[in-house]
Amino acid sequence: MLEHLSPSSVHTFFQCPHKFYINKIEGIPDRTQYAMTVFGTAMHKALDIYSRVFDIRVSVDVLTETLKDLYGQVTVNTDMTECQLTQMGTIALTEFAMKFGATLVPVETEFPITIKRPNKIDIKTIIDYLDEDKIIDYKLGKSWFNTSNPYDYELNMFTYAYAYKEHFGKWPKLYIIRAKYRQKDRQTIFGDWVVDELNLQEDKAEDYFYFYDTVERAIKDGFFPRTLDKKFCGYCSYKGSTCAQTLPYINKEVQNVL
User: Fold this and answer.
1) Looking at residue 241, what DSSP letter applies?
2) Averaged pLDDT, 141-164
3) C-alpha distances out from residue 128 to 124, 184, 194, Å
4) Best exposed site among 11, 62, 78, 186 by fewest CB in 10 Å?
5) CA within 13 Å, CB half, 66
6) DSSP assignment string, 189-221
7) DSSP string spanning 36-105?
8) Which SS3 state, helix, strand or coil, does residue 253 take?
9) In the chain, what is the greatest distance between 2 CA atoms, to the nearest angstrom?
């Protein structure tokens, strides 16, 4: 049995149950990543350091080293090179420092937190930025969340807020600081930083926990078919696996439910 779930693991399941099974149940790492996924990981680390020391040079060094390490560990599917991502990240970090300066002083960064669920799988997650009364989450990928799918962003933020309430006894304010990008000469270029405040209600907990419960039922039933949406297959490390060749595709009725 899986020891815990997280918003990202639920997101993986709803993209492709089969990928969830190989990655989360079998524990086989995904060795293929989108460039913006790699970029987001490196930027999270760089912003974490910036919120501690407020030194842009140190943050850029962390960004550069993290990108170098990631490019050495995984296959990055992209037309963007490591150098291009480093340049874009340096610009983004510089703009972040100019816009926010030393005004964002967290109590904790990269704060691990757990929601205990008796007789169910616990939920674990990490909060980017935690203050005495607010949570800030950084959204750094090229595409922002899809508001028609609550598990794309609301599930993450609700999970953070619910875990915060369980831990600290009060419901926090919720903010997203997101990076905007633009295209120039068919290249992705950093545009600006935008702040959004979210209004998620504590009394909607049942609606959000439904997604975790759906994944838990699938685990108990051994239900891990392949997705019908081939856009998730393009850069997937597991599409050529033996299991992927023999498993049925997820049927349309279930696809509608998910």
Assistant:
1) S
2) 69
3) 13, 30, 16
4) 186
5) 23
6) EEEEEEEEEE---GGGHHHHHHHHHHHHHHHHH
7) HHHHHHHHHHHHHHHHHH--HHHHHHHHHHHHHHHHHHSEEESS--HHHHHHHHHHHHHHHHHHHTT---
8) helix
9) 54
Backbone dihedral angles phi then psi of residue 86, each to the nearest 5 degrees = -65, -45
DSSP-derived secondary structure letter, 21: I
Which amino acid belongs to residue 102? A
Q: Are strands 122-130 and 134-139 parallel, antiparallel or unpaired?
A: antiparallel
Q: Which residue has the tokens 């023999």?
A: 246
Question: Residue type at 189?
Answer: I
d(CA 71, CA 53) in angstroms, rounded, equals 26
pLDDT tens profile 163-216:
999 888 999 999 989 888 887 777 778 889 999 888 888 888 888 899 999 999
Phi first, then psi, for residue 112 (nearest 5°) are: -80, 140
CB 172 within 8 A of CB 133: yes
Neighbour-count burial of 253, counting CB atoms closer than 10 A to its CB (0-12 exposed, 13-18 middle, 19+ buried): exposed
